[in-house]
């Protein structure tokens, strides 16, 4: 992370830390790197705000504009498979997975869900 900041152009360069570091980790740098005009920023979730943006995403899914199935690489049947999914993700073999805890009852389709809130345009 420090190398990324130091590689940014002096005067107007910007370095963005994405995601979350391990617990207890620190970053050390020289103040000179910042007072010469470099910018160091951080972001999680791409800068999205849950309260405002999740309803927009839900609407996109319901309208078929965001095909979630394209992002799911693994599916596990039954609650007893949760650990299998976690293990698969930790191995790096899975982008995103879903555990269907009760595959025989209450299957939901996007058509069955009704949007109860209106998303305000900004």
From TrEMBL:
User: A Gene Ontology molecular-function term?
Assistant: S-(hydroxymethyl)glutathione dehydrogenase [NAD(P)+] activity
The entry's keywords: Metal-binding, NAD, Zinc
Instruction: List the InterPro entries.
Output: GroES-like_sf
GO annotations of cellular component type: cytosol
What name goes with this protein?
Answer: Alcohol dehydrogenase
State the PANTHER family in the record.
ALCOHOL DEHYDROGENASE, ALCOHOL DEHYDROGENASE CLASS-3
Give one GO biological process term. Answer: formaldehyde catabolic process
